[in-house]
Amino acid sequence: MKLTTMTQVTVDGVMQGNGAASDDRRNGFERGGWALGKGDDETHAFIKQTYQRAEAFLFGRRTYELFAGSWGSSTVQDVPGWEPVLRALNTRPKYVASATITDPAWSGTTVLSGDVAAAVRELKAKPGGELQVHGSGILSRWLLENDLVDEMTLITIPVVVGQGARLFPDAGPDLALDLIESRVDSKGVTIQVYRPAGRPQYAPTA
After folding, report:
1. Which of 32, 64, 177, 195 would bridge with 96, disulfide CB 3.0–4.6 Å?
2. Beta bridge partners of 154
3. DSSP 3-state helix, strand, coil percentages of the chain (rounded to 5)?
4. What pLDDT score does 121 carry?
C-alpha cells in the first residue's frame, strides 16, 4: 500500500482545531473551527474521493479518538453529503499508533504498539491502494522523519490564526518535496500534493 497523508492547515501552518471549536483546546487554544464551511464543492469532492480510495486508515491516538467519537458514532442522517467519508471510515480497516489504547471501541480497529515503524512497513508491503493518515500531526511528522510517507496532501485554508500547534515545528529535520498536483478553489482554498524527495539542496556558504 502507498502511505499518504492529508492535513488541513492555515496559512501560518497551524493544524490544531480545524473542526469544531471545542475539539482541541490544548495549551489554551481558543481559535478552533477555522476550516468549517471553507472550500467549495470541488474541494469537498476531492476530499470525499480521497477517502474512497483508502484501503485502510492509520491514526495517531488523539485524532483516532476524535474520529471515533464523531464519525464512529454518526449515521448517514448526521452527515448529509458526506456519506462516502462515513462509509469508508466505518467499513475499511483502521490502525492506531498508541501505547495507551488497549481495547478500541471503534469496530475494525487494530492497535499498533511496540515497533510501530516495523508494523507500518509491514502494512505498506501489503498489496492494495492507500494507507491514509488524516490529521495526526505528531504521527505525520514521525512518519516523514522515518521515510515512510509516499505522498503528502496539504489543504491550506486562507486564514492566519496566530496560535496553535503547527504541522511542522520551528526546528526539525529538513525535507525536499516534489509538487505533483496543485489546485485552488473558488473560495481560495488550495490543495497541494507533494512527494518527499530527500534532503533539500542549499546554496554554498561564501
Report:
1. 64
2. 7, 192
3. 30, 25, 45
4. 97
pLDDT at 20 (0 to 100): 67
The answer to whether the CB of 97 falls within 8 A of the CB of 58 is: yes
CA dist 16 and 169 (Å) reads 13
d(CA 90, CA 111): 16
pLDDT, tens digit, for every residue of 80-106?
A: 999 999 999 999 999 999 999 999 989
| Low-confidence stretches of the chain (pLDDT beneath 70) | 20-24, 27
**Residue 23, in any domain of the structure:** yes
Residue 20, domain CATH: 3.40.430.10
What's residue 87's pLDDT?
Answer: 95
Task: Specify whether the backbone of 142 is left (phi greater than 0), alpha (psi in -120 to 50) or beta.
Answer: alpha
Specify the 3-state DSSP secondary structure of 6. strand
Q: Considering the domain boundaries, does residue 162 fall inside one?
A: yes
Do the Cβ atoms of 5 and 60 come closer than 8 Å? no
Residue 70's domain spans which residues? 8-171
Residues 6 or more apart whose CB falls under 8 angstroms from that of 113 comprise 97, 98, 99
pTM higher than the cut 0.70: yes
- 63 vs 176: CA distance, rounded Å: 26
- Number of structural domains in the chain: 1
